[in-house]
Amino acid sequence: MEQLLEQIETYKKEIKGFAATDAKAAEEFRIKYLGTKGIVKAVMAELKNVPHEKKKEFGQVLNEFKIFAEEKFESLKSSTSSLEHPTSNIDLSLPGDPMPLGSRHPITLMRNRIVSIFQRLGFAIAEGPEIEDDWHNFTALNLHEHHPARDMQDTFYVQQNPDWLLRTHTSNVQIREMEKGKLPIRGIYPGRVYRNETVSARSHCFFHQVEGLYIDENVSFADLKQTLYFFVREMYGKDVRVRFRPSYFPFTEPSAEMDVSCFICGGVGCNICKKTGWVEILGCGMVHPQVLQNCHIDPNKYTGFAFGMGIERPAMLKYGINDIRLFSENDVRFLKQFTSAI
Ligand code: DAH
């Protein structure tokens, strides 16, 4: 018996000192100690020669020995397999894989550019609902009941409620901001608008606009012109020329449309400006006294100007995009081309 115990101790020392640098050596260990013809099996077989009254005590010693060998094998296995695992060959000094970065949508880029110029002039950004009621989209803006813009052909109405529609312009935000009753107002209102148009390369049933509004005492048409002049110079450069053409909008009086000298050809005439040298960019005017009144603002005390411009067209011109549908198709090959700081 004593001999067997000594033998086990010797094996244990051997096992403890066993070192394996690769999986092959670990396997050799398994065969030598834990294999069917291995040492552990042989030692266990000795139990039958142990006198009956010592069997329990010996059984325990043998069992511990077996577990000792098994645990050693497990640790050999995991240390050698991690050495051979492919990750162990990684050169930690190599630069990392680049993280794929998203890019901003060209409409967002253009919107941010427009909005940030007005923010520098103290205009505060605000947004309004895309599902709007008749009052804020039409009536309060002086668009009378039979105005052609209200036509089913032009406007998407919401089936559940005949008073609801998808806003056809961002001018609804003007009304909502004026109704809040806090004056003066200097705001810039970007957003998505909807019109019942046939989708083609040039027009879509939804697009984006930026609305501007300035209401205070003594606001004049000169303020409107200077503000917009500042905007186009920031947007298109110091050499740009502007021209105001008389126009008509029911919510402004007088109304105008503003053109800028074509920033593609410099005013000489090209396909973009249809050989005229001018590109139309926005509608504007002095807020109609009736509109002020509709929002409980005294037109004898306050005056103001408003303007509205599309985002798609300047974005298409800036980035050379020839089909408006590309903006909403979410083709990653298209989207990932646009990068900018804002
Ligand atoms: N709401 C007009 C449109 O959708 C754009 C517009 C024109 C807005 C003149 C204005 C404005 O605020 O004064 O075409």
The strands making up the biggest β-sheet line up spatially as 1-4-5-9-8-7-6
- Largest pleated sheet: 7 strands, mixed
Q: Output the structural class.
A: alpha+beta
Helix and strand succession? HHHHHEEHEHEEHEEEHEHHH
Question: Mind explaining what this structure looks like?
Answer:
The chain is α+β, with helices and mostly antiparallel strands and 342 residues long. It has 2 domains: 2-84; 106-335, Bira Bifunctional Protein, Domain 2 (BirA Bifunctional Protein, domain 2), CATH 3.30.930. Helices cover 38% and strands 19% of the residues. It is built from 12 helices and 9 strands. α1 runs parallel beside α4, α2 packs antiparallel against α4 and α5 crosses α10. It is elongated and about 120 Å long. The mean pLDDT is 92.
Helix-strand layout with pairing:
Layout: H1 2-17, H2 23-34, H3 39-45, H4 55-84, H5 106-120, E1 124-125, E2 131-133, H6 134-137, E3 164-166, H7 171-179, E4 185-194, E5 206-216, H8 221-236, E6 242-249, E7 252-261, E8 278-287, H9 289-294, E9 303-310, H10 312-319, H11 326-329, H12 332-335
Parallel strand pairs: 1-4
Antiparallel strand pairs: 2-3, 4-5, 5-9, 6-7, 7-8, 8-9
Bound molecules: 3,4-dihydroxyphenylalanine.
Salient structural properties:
about 350 residues; alpha+beta; BirA Bifunctional Protein, domain 2; two-stranded antiparallel sheet; 12 helices; binds 3,4-dihydroxyphenylalanine
Tell me briefly what this model is:
This protein is an alpha+beta fold and 342 residues long. The chain contains 12 helices and 9 strands.
